[in-house]
Amino acid sequence: WGFLLLVAALALGGKAVARCPTPCVCDNLRAHVLCLNGNLTAIPGAIPELTKKLDLQGNSFTVIPVGAFLATPYLKHLDLQHCKVERLEEGAFRGLGRLLYLNLASNGIALLFQESLDGLSALQQLILKGNRIEEIQSGAFGHLGSLTVLDLRANALVYLPDMVFQGLQALRWLRLSHNALHVLSSEAFAALPTLRRLSLDHNELQALPGEALARLDGATWLDLGHNPITYVAEEALAMASLKHLFLDHAALQDVAPNAFTHSPQLRTLDLRENQLQGLPPLAGVRGRVRVSLAGNPLLCSCLLRPFHDWLVRARVQAEGSCATPPALHGRPLDSLRPPELRCSHPQPRPSPATPSERPRAASSRQCPQECTCSPDFRHGSCENRDLWDIPQGFPGDTRLLDLRRNTFRMVLPGAFLGLKELVSLHLQSCSIRALRPGALRGLESLVYLYLADNCLSTLAAAAFEGAPRLAYLDLDRNTFTHLPAGAFQLLPNLISLHLQHNAIGELVEGDLAGAGGLRWLYLAGNAIRRIAPAALAPAKMLEKLHLEGNHLVEVPTAALRGLPSLSELKLSGNPIKRMGDGAFLPLTSSLQHLYLDNMGLEEISPGAFAGLGPKIRSLYLESNKMSNIPDMSNFTGLEILNLRDVPFHCDCQLLPLHRWTDKLNLHVGATCGSPAEAQGLKVKLSTTFQTCPGWGRGEAGGASPDKAKAASKLNKKKRSGKSPARGFKTSRA
C-alpha cells in the first residue's frame, strides 16, 4: 500500500499532497495525513486545517505541549502510537472537540494529570495501552463524557483511588488487564452508570474486590482471571446484572456457598485452572448456567455429592473431570452417578477463613493551616508553600498527600503517624538529604512514594520500616553513586524502582537483595560502566530493564541470565561499538522489545541475534554506523523495525536485506550511505541491486517490470530532490 500511494502521488503530479508538511503524505480526498516513522520531534506545522485523520506513529515527540493541535480543529482520528511520549501537558488536546478516536499506545506516559485530556468532549475511544502509567489523579477523565472504551492495559497501575473514573458517563468497556493492581478503593468504580464490561485479569488482586464492584449495577461481563485470589467469600459479589464471570487461572482453593447469591443473572462461571478440589452447592445460581471446572484437582468422593446433586437439581451444566480417586480419574462430572461418589473415612472439607476486613480509620476534617484538604477525594496538598517542616494534623483517611517543592532537608522518624490509609506520598523537589530510620513508620497502606529531584545519596533499610506495601519507589534525579544496597529488604511488594539520572557507576552483587518481586527497573541516564554477572539475580521477575544513556561498552550478557520474564531491554545511547555472537541468548524465550539505537554501533556479528525470532515485536537500530546487519528473516512477529540514519552500503551483500524489507509490511527507514550513486536512496526501492547475481530470483512478489520501472523513476526523482512523498509507511493492522 505504501508503494502504491507513492506511485499514485507521482501520477497526480503532486496534487494529492498540496499544502502537505515534509515529510508527510496527504490524501486530501479523504482528509487523511500520514507522517509515519520519521524524525519528527514536534507536531508538524502546516497540516491542512480540514484534516480529519492524522497518523503520527513512530516519531519522537517526548512531550505533547499545550494546544498542540489547535490548528486542526476538525480531527476525528489521531494516532500517536510508538512516539516516545512521556508527558501530556495540561491542555495538550484543547481544540479537538470533534475527535472520536485517540491512540496513545506504546509510549512512556507515567502520570495522568487532571487536565491532561481536557477538550476531548466528543472522544469515544481512548487507547493508553502499553505505557508506564503508575498513578491516575482524580478528575483526569472528567472531561470525557462521550467516551465508550478506555484501554489502560499493560501499564503499571497498583492502586485505584475513589472516583478515579468520575465523568465517564457513557463508558461501556474499561480495560485494566496486565497491570499490577492489588488495591481498589471502595468507590473506585463509582459514577460509571453505563459500564457493561470490566477487564481486571492479569493483576495482583488477592481477594475479590466486592465492595468496589458493587457499584457496577449494569455490568454484565467481569474478567478477574489470572489474579492470585484464593477464596471467594460469602456474598462477595453483588452485581445485579452480571452474566459472565471469569475467575480462571487464579489460586482459588474454596468458594463460599452463597458467594454469588446477589448476582442472580449469572450465566457463565469460569473457574478453570484453579486449585479447587470441589465446590459446595451455589445458592442463587440455577438454570441455564455453565460452570467450568476444567484443570482443577477435583476430588470425586462423597464430599462432592452435595455439589453433584445440586447440578442435577438446579439444571446447571458443569465442565470438568475427576483427578482423584484413581478409579474415577478423567471421568467427566456429568457422567458420574451418586453411588460412585463415596468415602472410606469421610471428613468435612475445611473452608479457609474469610479475610478480615481492615477497620476503616476514623476520619476527621482537620487540615494544617498552610495546606488544603479535599474530603471528596481524600487528598491533602501543601505544594510549594515554602515549608521547612512536614506539617501535622491531616485527616486520618487521607489517601494522597502532595508535599512537593518545599524545603524539608530531611524526613524524621514518625513524620506521618496517624495516616494509616495514605496510599500516595509526593515529596519531589524538597531538598531532602536524609530519610531517617522510621520515617515512614505507620504508613501501612502506602503504595507510591515519590522522592525524585532531591539530594539523597544513600538509604538505610530501616528508612522503609512500617511501609510493607510500598510498590513504587521513585528516586530519579538524586545523587546516588551506587544502588542503596540492603534498602529493599523491608519492601517485599516493591514492583517498580526508578533510579534514573543519578551518578551510579556500576551494579554489583547484592545491590538488589530483597527485591524478589521487582518487575520494572529504570536506570537510564547514569554512568554505569559495568554490571556484575549476579547483580540482577535477585530480581527474577524483572520484565523491563532500562539502561539507556549509560557508559556500557558491551551488552551485559552474563548479567541477563536468570531473568526468564524480561520482555523489554533498553540499551540506547550506550557506547557499544561492536555486538558479538549470542549477545541476547539468555533472553531468547522472553524478549519482545529491544532498543539499540543511537549507540554509534559499527558492527553486528552474524550471530548477535542468535536465538531471537518470532517473539520480537519491536527492534530499534536507528542512528548507528554499521553498514550491514545480520539475517533477521525469522523475526516474523515484528511490528516495528527502525533502521533510519544507518549508512548501509548498498552492494550485492545487502541484497538479502533489500529482499527482506521488501516483503515486510512495515516502513523501516533504511537508506543507502554508499556507494556514491546510491547515497540517500531507500534500500527498499533502490535499483542498485538489479545488477546483482540472482536478482531475478525470489524478489518480493516477483518484482514486476511495472514496479521496477516505477521504483527506478522514483529513485531518479529522489536524486533530483523532487520526491513529494517521503516518510510514508503502511503498518500492521
UniProtKB/TrEMBL annotation:
<feature type="domain" description="LRRCT">
    <location>
        <begin position="647"/>
        <end position="693"/>
    </location>
</feature>
<dbReference type="InterPro" id="IPR001611">
    <property type="entry name" value="Leu-rich_rpt"/>
</dbReference>
<dbReference type="Pfam" id="PF01463">
    <property type="entry name" value="LRRCT"/>
</dbReference>
<comment type="similarity">
    <text>Belongs to the small leucine-rich proteoglycan (SLRP) family. SLRP class IV subfamily.</text>
</comment>
<dbReference type="InterPro" id="IPR032675">
    <property type="entry name" value="LRR_dom_sf"/>
</dbReference>
<dbReference type="InterPro" id="IPR050541">
    <property type="entry name" value="LRR_TM_domain-containing"/>
</dbReference>
<comment type="subunit">
    <text>Associates with collagen and binds to collagen fibrils.</text>
</comment>
<keyword id="KW-0732">Signal</keyword>
<dbReference type="Pfam" id="PF13855">
    <property type="entry name" value="LRR_8"/>
</dbReference>
<keyword id="KW-0325">Glycoprotein</keyword>
<feature type="signal peptide">
    <location>
        <begin position="1"/>
        <end position="18"/>
    </location>
</feature>
<dbReference type="InterPro" id="IPR000483">
    <property type="entry name" value="Cys-rich_flank_reg_C"/>
</dbReference>
<protein>
    <recommendedName>
        <fullName>Chondroadherin-like protein</fullName>
    </recommendedName>
</protein>
<keyword id="KW-0433">Leucine-rich repeat</keyword>
<feature type="region of interest" description="Disordered">
    <location>
        <begin position="322"/>
        <end position="366"/>
    </location>
</feature>
<feature type="compositionally biased region" description="Basic and acidic residues">
    <location>
        <begin position="331"/>
        <end position="343"/>
    </location>
</feature>
<keyword id="KW-0272">Extracellular matrix</keyword>
<feature type="domain" description="LRRNT">
    <location>
        <begin position="19"/>
        <end position="53"/>
    </location>
</feature>
<feature type="region of interest" description="Disordered">
    <location>
        <begin position="695"/>
        <end position="733"/>
    </location>
</feature>
<dbReference type="GO" id="GO:0005886">
    <property type="term" value="C:plasma membrane"/>
</dbReference>
<feature type="domain" description="LRRNT">
    <location>
        <begin position="366"/>
        <end position="400"/>
    </location>
</feature>
<comment type="function">
    <text>Potential negative modulator of chondrocyte differentiation. Inhibits collagen fibrillogenesis in vitro. May influence chondrocyte's differentiation by acting on its cellular collagenous microenvironment.</text>
</comment>
<dbReference type="InterPro" id="IPR000372">
    <property type="entry name" value="LRRNT"/>
</dbReference>
<keyword id="KW-0677">Repeat</keyword>
<keyword id="KW-1015">Disulfide bond</keyword>
<dbReference type="InterPro" id="IPR003591">
    <property type="entry name" value="Leu-rich_rpt_typical-subtyp"/>
</dbReference>
<keyword id="KW-0964">Secreted</keyword>
<feature type="domain" description="LRRCT">
    <location>
        <begin position="296"/>
        <end position="344"/>
    </location>
</feature>
